[in-house]
Specification:
157 residues; 6 helices; single chain; 0% strand; 78% helix; mainly alpha
């Protein structure tokens, strides 16, 4: 494993961006568009590093990412998710094959449920009223970090 190798650097950069997105969403309830854009724009470099062919590999990655984005855009349209969360999920979908992406989405849902319960308990404990904003970017970031560790740690087996 060489630290100058793009197959090491790119997942580390993605991990740092995910960590930043999660912290930002927890603190401000927003995720900067530039972070989502960088995550999406780095995906083609990742594909190149993996040696994916344009057809069908890259086309499949883009198609799956568009489907994921469209599904979660529906949640946004219904007021169930923030726009930054939807863009982050769509950008992450560009990075992972469908099997890893499916695992990421399941983890994201479970972690999101835990985050929601924690916020509900905190609101009840402090007797806060008003609309509840769940920082779902935290769940997305944690699930992404768990999923991105695979390319890094898989090199040691």
């Amino acid at each position: 494993m060489s630290w100058g190798n793009p197959s090491v650097i790119l997942p580390l950069v993605l991990g740092a961006l995910l960590l930043s997105c999660g912290i930002e969403d927890a603190r401000l309830r927003t995720i900067a568009n530039w972070k989502n854009a960088i995550i999406a724009l780095l995906a083609p470099l990742w594909w190149w590093t993996l040696g994916l062919s344009l057809w069908p590999d890259v086309a499949l990655q883009i198609g799956i990412a568009l489907l994921v984005f469209a599904f979660f855009f529906g949640a946004f349209a219904l007021g169930q998710m923030g726009g930054g969360d939807v863009k982050l999920i769509g950008a992450l979908a560009l990075w992972f094959p469908w099997s890893a992406l499916l695992g990421l989405l399941v983890m994201m849902s479970l972690i999101g449920g835990v985050v929601t319960i924690v916020i509900a308990v905190e609101r009840w404990w402090r007797r806060r009223q008003g609309p509840v904003e769940i920082p779902y970017g935290v769940a997305i970031a944690i699930a992404g970090l768990i999923t991105v560790r695979e390319p890094l740690l898989n090199q040691f087996t």
